[in-house]
Amino acid sequence: MLKLSPKSPALLSALFLIASPLALRLHAQQPAASDAAATSSPTEAPDKYLWLEDVNSPRSMAWVKAEDARSLKVLEADPNYAKYHADALKIAQAPDRLPEPEQRGDQIYNLWRDANHVNGIWRKTTLANYITKNPTWTTVIDFDALGKQDHTNWVSKGVRCLYPGTRYCMVILSSGGEDADTQREFDLKTGKFMPNGFILPRSKQDVAWLDKDTLIVGRDWGPGTMTTSGYPFILKLWKRGTPLDSAKEVFRGKQTDMGVNGYTLHDAHNHALTVFTRNITFFETQTFILTPSGPKQLSIPAKSSISGLLDGRVLLTIDQDWTPSGQRQTFKQGSLLELSLSDVLNHPDALKPSIIFEPTADEFLQDVATTRSRLLLTTLKHVQGAAYVYDPGLTGWSHRQLPVAENVSVGIVSTNPTDDDFFLGITGFLTPSSLYLGAADTGSLALEKTEPARFDASKDVVQQLYATSKDGTKVPYFIVHPKDMPYNGNNPVLLNAYGGFQVSETPYYSANIGKLWLEHGGTYVLANIRGGGEFGPAWHEAGLKTHRQRIYDDFAAVGEDLIARRITSPQHLGIMGGSNGGLLMGVEMTQHPDLWHAIVIQVPLLDMLRFEKIAAGASWVGEYGSVSVPSERAFLAGISPYNQLKPGVKYPEPLIFTTTKDDRVGPQHARKFAAKMEEFHDPFFYDEIVEGGHAAGANLQEQASTWALTYTYLTRKLMDQ
Question: Helix, strand or coil for residue 186?
Answer without folding.
Answer: strand
